[in-house]
Amino acid sequence: MTADLLAPLDLAFWNIESAEHPMHLGALGIFSAHSPAAGAHAADLLAARAAGVPGLRMRIRDVWQPLPSALRRPLAFGGAAREADPDFDPLNHVRLHAPTADFHTVAGRLMERPLERDRPPWEAHVLPGEDGVCFAVLFKFHHALADGLRALTLAAGVMDPMDLPAPRPRPAEAPRGLVPDVRDLPGMMRGALSDMSRALDIGASVARSSLDVRSTPALTCEPSGTRRTAGVALDLDDVHRVRKTVGGTVNDVLIAVVAGALRRWLDERGDGSEGVAPRALIPVSKRRPRTAYPQGNRLSGYLIRLPVDDPDPLARLASVRDAMDRNKDAGPNRGAGAVALLADHVPALAHRLGGPLVGQAARLWFDLLVTSVPLPSLGLKLGGHPLTAVFPFAPLAPGHSLAVAVSTYRGSVHYGLVADGEAVPDLDLFATSLSKEVATLIKACRS
Q: Of 125, 159, 373, 378, which residue is the least packed, with the fewest Cβ within 10 Å?
């Protein structure tokens, strides 16, 4: 497998990271176990199968291109590339831990540890349950190696075989000469000017959409470097029941549930919800349907105000629905959420030099990440042990105290929560609030 230059947004994620602010995503899968030895068997299987998944061999290295290449691709100068690690050893990435009664407590400690950057940036941690009837696997992938969809593809490669359609091969690039063809220079200049114009257009849109933003103190903090995780599973039929009653999409309901849970959580912990309307970033995939080789991140986003201060659950849902409809009408290239698209128009060297500053600016841009992670509807197994629940974990941006990821699997909605361990010691209270908010919405729909 040859070296592959990182896409601009992947490069941004790679350079934003620091030891205190790791930029990996994760997923905690819970499996039913047939015996107390199931966890150890799962660890052996993961290590054996990882050796046969080419994408798991990929490490990331800095790239300083020679002058001819830099002339040809100036935006990539000073970038990074994925390449196969010749010293790849799956045993360095798959770890078996001692039995535990609390998967999320262990997962939180593991999520706060950065991935090693000098080898393929992923890990699988197997956590046997003390009761012997279940075990968990925490997968960690750096966001520069894989976004949610790509991480799912890589994780599926180490699960029990499934009958899935084979991916389409990437089209091969035409060979290029050492020096750009003179006939190509006008087109290259037009492309560069088009990139500049596009960046200015997006930047202006972001600026206009951000003029009135203010941070929500309860959702921002001075980073401690610690992490807590929690998860809650809801019945997908309950979500559909609400959607069918009031309209909108499943995603509208899931976002409104977060808004209502925040209200309940803030009131119960004594912070109060009056006047609180945090800015939620809702990532939007820009990848074309049926893309066969989902290597690089292709993301934009919608930015909406969560109506936490509204006491009426149905009014909160209507507000979320209206905000999402306005974002969809404007498209993912407009609004403050489109700032991720600027990565495509920024030289790689600027990502390298300005990454830390961009990361620190996250709290000025949004207060809370609420992201959806796709999962297959088919049941997954590892060593014959069924996957019964899976909680996705999003990266926690510098200065943020909470991030929310959500996925649907086998008739359930799984919320995965990641928080700064010191700023949010009561993360379980927020998880409980999510369940209570669904019950509140159902009751409101019946009345």
A: 378
Assigned domain for 296 exists? yes
Position 173 in a domain: no
Parent domain of 116: 4-65+77-158
Residues 113-135: what's their mean pLDDT? 96
User: Is residue 276 located within the same domain as residue 359?
Assistant: yes
Strand, coil or helix: 381 = strand
Does one domain contain both 128 and 205?
A: no
pLDDT tens figures, 370-428: 999 878 777 899 999 999 999 999 999 888 999 999 999 999 999 999 999 999 999 99
Q: Assign residue 28 the CATH number of its domain.
A: 3.30.559.10
Based on the fold, state whether residues 129 and 205 are members of the same structural domain. Answer: no
Q: How many domains does the chain contain in total? A: 2
218 plus 143 within the same structural domain: no
Query: Between β-strands 279-285 and 368-372, what pairing exists: parallel, antiparallel or unpaired?
Result: parallel
- Average pLDDT estimate for 319-331: 89
List CB contacts of 282: < 8 A, sequence separation 6 or more: 255, 301, 302, 303, 304, 324, 327, 337, 370, 371
- The three-class DSSP label of residue 121 is coil
**For residues 107 and 28, is the Cβ–Cβ distance under 8 A?**
yes
| Tokens found for residue 275 | 């006047």
* DSSP-derived secondary structure letter, 248: S
Residue 314 forms beta bridges with which residues?
none
Could you read off the pLDDT of 148-182 as tens digits, one per residue? 778 888 998 999 986 544 444 544 444 433 334 44
- 195 and 323 assigned to the same domain: yes
399: nearest Cα among 352, 339, 356, 336: 356
Of 110, 140, 158, the one marking the end of a domain is 158
pLDDT at 81: 84
Please say if the pLDDT value at position 433 is more than 60: yes
Note the pLDDT tens digit of each residue in 233-256. Answer: 999 999 999 999 999 999 999 999
CATH number of the domain enclosing 337: 3.30.559.30
Separation of alpha carbons 407 and 444, rounded Å: 24
Q: What percent of the chain has pLDDT over 90?
A: 56
